[in-house]
UniProtKB/TrEMBL annotation:
One of its GO terms (molecular function) is magnesium ion binding. Transmembrane segments: none annotated. Gene3D superfamilies: 4'-phosphopantetheinyl transferase domain. InterPro entries: 4-PPantetheinyl_Trfase_dom, 4-PPantetheinyl_Trfase_dom_sf, Ppantetheine-prot_Trfase_dom. This is 4'-phosphopantetheinyl transferase superfamily protein. The keyword DNA-binding does not apply. It comes from Collinsella acetigenes. Residues 4-128 form the 4'-phosphopantetheinyl transferase domain. The keyword Metal-binding applies. One of its GO terms (biological process) is fatty acid biosynthetic process.
Amino acid sequence: MARGIGIDLVRIGDVADHLGNAVCTCNTAASPWLTHLFTSTELELAFARQQPAEFLAGRLAVKHAARKAVGPLINGEFNLRWVETLRATSGAPYVNVEIPALRKALDEAHVDELLVSISNDGDYAAAIVLAQ
């Protein structure tokens, strides 16, 4: 049963501005803004790609969409860094619901899973998250 839904749109250029000219193979070279929002795994995956800003913009959209879907169902803060978006072997994105803080929030919200879809077009990345 659906418990919540969230959607978000992120301008890829805004993320690119935070990346600057950085070429990073690990999260230690990333800006504080990046390490505050993204897990080390997300940063490693992003910087292994040709277009890290596009990749991270999609992940940021997922984080905001997840907060919109789950945040109203819990007491207290919903931290964007709790939401780690990975790729299944099929290539589909999924949220790692085993991060302890996120799992606790999902349990409080009576949510078993977060279904996610990401789309990039032109200057924007969009994501939708269904909490069920």
